[in-house]
Design a protein that fits this description.
Blueprint (H helix, E strand, L loop, with lengths): L30 H4 L61 H23 L11 E13 L10 E5 L1 H4 L3 E5 L13 E8 L5 E7 L2
Parallel strand pairs: 3-5
Antiparallel strand pairs: 1-2, 1-4, 2-3, 4-5
């Protein structure tokens, strides 16, 4: 007699290997007990409950507004007309050149604030070697896609003095300080080789 082979087939109604008993306390905190039973339409265009609240949590009160006795109000734009939006605008569709211009303008504006607040001299370039301590202006960045740490801090110099160049920072001689990506700071330190700046002091707003 030949050996009977076992056929491998997927059952039509598979049973889970591990089921939670109705008396188990874990069923009270399962996702099924907290998720509302909401069925979505197959197609977005075929929905019939547009604007209808299908699920809510807690007590919901409608908004209440009381007029001011028929008084009228007028809308006034804040700031100069060049800085206000007067027509349709697509969010997050800015051109790379416009983004760079906005960042450069922000660095220059905060650089003037740092210079006047801390009574600093003119800023130096982050790309030029300097044997004596110099003060540079720029934006804190990270040399990779990971988290910012003491070994991955990079300074993106301003456009006026450093032409947007980058330089790694050595924070070993820094007694205290707080840095985060995107922060606009003025740094004092030495750059003997032109490849790495040893920071001794941080000027922040």
């Amino acid at each position: 007699q030949g050996s009977q082979k076992r056929t491998n087939s997927t059952p039509e109604n598979p049973q889970p290997k591990r089921t939670l008993s109705s008396r188990s306390p874990y069923t009270l905190f399962s996702p099924n007990s907290f998720s509302p039973g909401v069925t979505s339409s197959q197609k977005y265009t075929s929905r019939s409950s547009r604007g209808e609240v299908v699920a809510s949590f807690g007590s919901v009160h409608g908004p209440y507004w009381n007029g001011g006795g028929g008084r009228s109000c007028t809308l006034k734009l804040f700031g100069s007309p060049e800085q206000n939006l007067t027509k349709s605008y697509k969010f997050m569709f800015q051109k790379a050149f416009d983004i760079r211009e906005a960042l450069s303008w922000r660095i220059e504006e905060l650089g003037n604030v740092l210079k006047s607040h801390h009574h600093l001299d003119d800023f130096a370039s982050v790309l030029l070697p300097a044997q004596e301590p110099v003060t540079v202006l720029g934006q804190i960045s990270c040399d990779s896609n990971g988290k910012l740490n003491a070994k991955s801090v990079v300074l993106e110099g301003d456009r006026e003095h450093s032409s947007g160049g980058q330089i790694p920072l050595d924070l070993s001689e820094l007694k205290e300080g707080f840095l985060f990506p995107g922060q606009i700071v003025a740094l004092e330190g030495t750059n003997t080789s032109g490849r790495r700046m040893v920071v001794s002091k941080i000027y922040e707003v």
